[in-house]
Every structure is written in C-alpha cells, then in structure tokens.
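chain below, 372 aa
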Amino acid sequence: MSIKWRVKALVIIPCKYEDIEEVKALVREAGYQPWQLIKICRYPDPRFYVGKGKVKELKDIVKELEIEKVIVYDMLKPRQVIGLMRELKLDVIDKVQLILEIFALHAGSKEAKLQIELARLRHELPLIREWVRRTKLGELPGFLGPGGYAAEAYYRFAKRRLTKIRKELEELRLRRQFERQKRKEHGLPHIAIAGYTNAGKTTVFNTLTHLSKPTGPEMFTTLSPKSATAFINGRKVILVDTVGFIRDVPVEVIEAFYATLEEIVDSDGILLVVDISESEENIVSKTESSIKIIKELGVVSKPIIIAANKVDLVNNSIERRLDLVETISKRNYDYIVDVIPVSATKKHNIGILRDAIWKILALRNTKSMYLG
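prediction:
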C-alpha cells in the first residue's frame, strides 16, 4: 500500500450516497485513512460546497484531529475546490480525483496510464484556469506556489500535453479496432465481461479461460481490457475482461476510458457479473447502476447474461436475491437472456454459464434478438 496510508483524511459525503462502506473502501484503496466522515444533506454552496457555518466546523475538526487531506465524495466546481483550500489551508480533492488516484496505483499498460493522465488533465484544466484568474486578481498565490506566470505556463503545457495524449490514444484505439476486426473476420465472436468493481469479473474470466490473471480484494484490479480465447461447447470465443463500474461514474472517467469501454459496445454479447453475497439493498443498487452504465455507453439491444456470483458466500435467501436481480435487470433492459447463480471460485454452475453463452452465440445473427 502507498505511503499515503498515513495521511489522515476528512471525508465529506453528500446524503445521496447511502453506501458509506463503499466510500470508505474507495478512500482506503487510494491509500488514505478515512479519519472522520461528515454527511452533507443541504444543497451545495456555490463557494465552498458546504455552508459557511459548516466551514467553521470543518476548520475546528481539521485542527483538533490534525487532518492532512480533505476528500469530498462529489464532483466539485473549481470555485468550490479553491474556496475550501483557502479556508482549510489543506489540499482538497473530489470524487473524480480520488478515483483517478486509485486508477494510477493500478495502471500497468501504456494505454491505461495515458487514459488516466488524459482524465486528470481534463479535470485539472478548469481548476488551473480559475487559479490563474484569481492569481491575476491578487486573490491567491500562484499555482502550487509559483506566481501567475508559472501558472499560465503550466496551463499552456497541460493543453499541449492533452493534444498529444489524445493523438496517442486514438492510434491505440484504431490498432485495437483493427485487431478486433481481424478476429471477427476469422469468425470469432466477442463476449465482454462487465460489472461492478470487485464483483469477481476477473475470477469469472479466469474460470472460463483457464488463465490466472491477477485478482484480489482491491478495487479496480482491471484497468485495461484483457482478452483471451475460450472454448464454449467446442466453439472458440474471445472473452474480454473490462474495467469495473462504480455508481455515478464521472463523465471524465467514462470518456477517458473509452478504449476500454469500447469493448463492451463492440461485443456480440455481455456477461454481467453481480455480487449476490452483498446486502439486498446493494444488490438492487449495483444491478441498476451496471445496467444504467451499459445503456449510457450506447448499448440498447445486445443480449446480456447475468452471472449472480459468489453464491457460496450466501447462507439463505438465494432465491429472493436472484429474483431481485432478475426483476431489476428486466425492468431496466429488454434483452436479458438469463440470470445464473454461480461461484467462480468454487466452479459452481460454470457449465450452465457456458450453455448460456452458447445460447448468445447461436442467436448472434438473429435480428429479432438484437440489432447488433
């Protein structure tokens, strides 16, 4: 774990996020210690995100607990970030920056690193622009210490770097598109494995492909797509493991990881993995969130199989949990092929899962099933 683990963080969470444990897990995954959590239920203040009275309370907490970092689990405007930094005299990051820090810790491939840098620069540019404006008005010291000229120079550098990264990513995207097209020309169908982060997607991928790609309790162990050949009832198929979802995914993250998410859009079918061992509330929320993200990517008529994973960790109410997943998914998406209870680690019902994938392959050219 990063040395940042010793950094005490004050975490501000809007009331709309009910899963506090998920927020704490993300904060820890980035290497911070969630020392104090505060829920904010009022409409965000345009200057500080929190109200002026709450700012004073935050100052007292920061001083008393010797807080070193402030994390707001929401998307902040540049004015709000700068306002909080001025008042609290601490570094302030929002939800987007937190997620990107986690991505950076796990990034391995050149593509993943470029995607993260692209998202970070896009998110920083409005903040830098606001910082430059205030520096010129004499309201702030220069960006991270230097004067206004240095801040402007960094802003110009960031814009040039953005242009270069976009070009490199486009080249990688075209190369990936070419590789996919060649595989399809050889008659190899593609199944994208998607789902909420930490649902067990890579374990399902390993089980179906007989590989041993890295897995673990950490979030976002998959940052760039992994693809491999699997034999489904004797037929060769390309399975692609994609980056995990989170609820209310920031637009910057979706766009930056287009090359990864493109695998979902271009697939012949989707294997959606849902962790069935969680609370019923989380099962409903995460199933809805996963379907919503898939639809936001432009997928509206591809067949989806849902693997209700980790049944080995459920002691009771399995049928009720499966009914919840089926009801929620079919209410939100018209092309759900099946909901199958599985345990990727115990290999439970993997044969049934393979049969369901075979069903998608048999229907891949049937226009009545999807417009693909």
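Strands lie at 8-14, 33-40, 69-72, 92-94, 190-195, 226-232, 235-241, 269-275, 304-309, 336-341. The longest helix spans residues 148-185.
thats it, cya
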